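[audit] Reproducing an earlier prediction to check determinism. Same input, same settings, fresh worker. If the tokens differ from the archived copy the diff job will pick it up downstream; this log only records the rerun itself.
[audit] input (141 residues):
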Amino acid sequence: MPYLKYLHASYSGFIALLVFYLGWMGFKIRRGRVAGRPPVVKVVKRHRKMGPIIALMGIAGFFAGAITVYLNEGRIFGHPIHFIIGLSIAAFVSTTFVISRKIRSQDSPLRTPHFIVGLVIICLYCIQTFIGINMLLHASH
């Protein structure tokens, strides 16, 4: 089922774009809060609504990738670096989800860890996307 790797790549690329968008919204919210401006309710609601959905979709993408590799190569660790980064993304996404559920006030000390873990997720998605594209390009030759 070689077409599954292209489906996984397309899905994961889409999720990466959504993660970048979610991060951009989060950064806008944080920048406004740090500057003392009132929150833009529409952006906050969208961030809160999309976050859990994108988190679940990202974690599902990791499992879909692992299953795809297993079906195509008969082993999960066919691409160990890609697997480890994907597993790290899933772990950090789970972490930021748990943190976000505990944030209750504007001055919550959990906002900074949520922000930092979000940045880590974005960095890992950049690396993962680069590795994934590289894998696809080398697989086609």
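[audit] rerun output stored. Observation attached for the diff report: The mean pLDDT is 94.
[audit] end
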